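quick q for whoever's on today - can somebody do inverse folding on this one?? i tried earlier but teh output was garbage lol. tokens:
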């Protein structure tokens, strides 16, 4: 039985898409289990960069069954557009894509409510991606949601929609003084997307379980990262789903005891998009250099990402949450030109050393990172494909990450190209 979970260990954008795509060629099935079109997974396909938001990052690999699981919140307009985009890039989307009937629909009113909420928060705005993620999960919990399966019985869907839209318009107009959404327009949009999406609908948990029991290699592709987890991230500056490996079971219907290994993905440094505490955020100049070399602009919103140094305290916290023993370090090449590389090995809080990640943001804002400076390798690593081709000092940097984090570094990514990978260990 092989069920390999790939999750982010930072604030998202760790390179999960590239890694999932890499392993997809050795897998039979790739499953998204949480999040939605807030994800931006950049993958290099035949030398061309493609960004996936809802489609699992295995979709470009022939004969891989891709599943959008029940824990995902699915924007049907965005998905239809994305299917068109990948098809125009020569990728086949047919039976290889299944959408679970239970996945909740992100509707235009969710985005309108989110925009109004973010505006009302003023200086305390979360800096969300405006993809309607939070309001959709709220509706799911308050049992006011519409699912992908609802699209299949359109008359009934229309009835439910009309009641919901009238309540949402009360919220939009009376609470926020915002513009109402148009029921007729939404109905027609949904009628059109239903034609495209209904043929992909399926009851997927049983299929995923059967794949696992029959010995197929099944990959679970996480979106976002542990520090954006709704329960354990830097709340309220988080996303609205469980981004750790614990999200796999409720997001797919696969029992927790069936989950095989959980692989954590971390950048060789750190980034964060949106608001919220970021203890190792770098000074303007090194941050600008990392941002430029790492092309650190949001794949979903185009916002420049905040850049900083690897935070081992936060990393250990994320590894513990998901039970991660093996790590994949990405974007090592971005650090190639630096003479010295700071790594955060601890924090001080009011003059006292601490080595655990504070759970509340007010404390997190007050801590000071303690850095260890490691020598840079000042060598181009982007061509390395074996450990022998990596400079000694780069290997020493990775070794230090292993010592400090307690996890082994199994794989290193040294560039955006799909083959820019050094495998120390074969994970799949
Ligand atoms: P991938 O899968 C980085 C961030 C947003 C914001 C917070 C809440 O590419 O790693 P949301 O729209 O989810 O309600 O926004 O979460 N965020 C991400 N940051 N990578 C992502 O996805 C993200 N998805 C959401 O910037 O701070
Ligand atoms: Mg991303």
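ok took a stab at it. sequence:
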């Amino acid at each position: 039985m092989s069920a390999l979970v790939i999750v982010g260990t930072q604030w998202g954008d760790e390179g999960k898409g590239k890694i999932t795509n890499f392993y997809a060629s050795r897998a039979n099935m790739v499953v998204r289990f949480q999040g939605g079109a807030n994800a931006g997974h950049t993958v290099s396909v035949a030398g061309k960069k493609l960004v996936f938001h809802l489609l699992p990052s295995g979709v470009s690999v022939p004969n891989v069954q891709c599943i959008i699981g029940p824990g995902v919140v699915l924007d049907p307009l965005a998905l239809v557009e994305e299917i068109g985009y990948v098809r125009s890039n020569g990728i086949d989307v047919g039976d290889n894509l299944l959408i679970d009937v239970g996945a909740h629909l992100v509707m235009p009113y969710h985005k309108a409510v989110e925009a109004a909420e973010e505006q009302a928060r003023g200086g305390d705005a979360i800096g969300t991606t405006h993809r309607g993620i939070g309001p959709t999960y709220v509706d799911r919990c308050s049992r006011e949601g519409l699912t992908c399966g609802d699209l299949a019985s359109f008359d009934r869907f229309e009835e439910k929609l009309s009641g919901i839209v009238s309540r949402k318009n009360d919220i939009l107009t009376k609470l926020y003084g915002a513009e109402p959404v148009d029921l007729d327009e939404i109905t027609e949009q949904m009628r059109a997307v239903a034609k495209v999406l209904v043929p992909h609908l399926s009851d997927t948990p049983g299929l995923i379980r059967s794949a696992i029991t029959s010995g197929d290699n099944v990959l679970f592709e996480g979106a976002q990262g542990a520090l954006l987890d709704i329960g354990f991230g830097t709340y309220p500056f988080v996303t609205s789903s469980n981004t750790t490996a614990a999200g796999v079971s409720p997001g797919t219907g696969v029992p927790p005891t069936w989950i095989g290994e959980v692989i954590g993905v971390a950048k060789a440094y750190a980034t964060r998009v949106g608001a919220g505490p970021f203890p190792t955020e770098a000074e303007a100049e090194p941050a600008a250099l990392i941002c430029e070399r790492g092309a650190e602009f949001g794949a979903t919103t185009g916002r420049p990402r905040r850049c900083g140094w690897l935070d081992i305290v936060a990393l250990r916290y994320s590894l513990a949450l998901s039970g991660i023993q093996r790590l994949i370090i990405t974007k090592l090449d971005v650090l190639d030109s630096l003479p010295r590389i700071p790594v955060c090995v601890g924090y001080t809080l009011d003059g006292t050393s601490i080595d655990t990640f504070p759970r509340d943001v007010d404390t997190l804002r007050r801590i000071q990172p303690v850095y260890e400076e490691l020598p840079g390798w000042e060598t181009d690593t982007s061509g390395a494909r074996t450990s022998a081709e990596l400079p000694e000092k780069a290997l020493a940097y990775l070794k230090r990450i292993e010592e400090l984090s307690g996890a082994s570094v199994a794989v290193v990514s040294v560039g955006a190209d799909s083959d820019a990978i050094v495998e120390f260990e074969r994970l799949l």
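fwiw The chain has three domains: 2-100+203-262, 104-197, 266-423. also The chain has a mean pLDDT of 97. so keep that in mind when u check it
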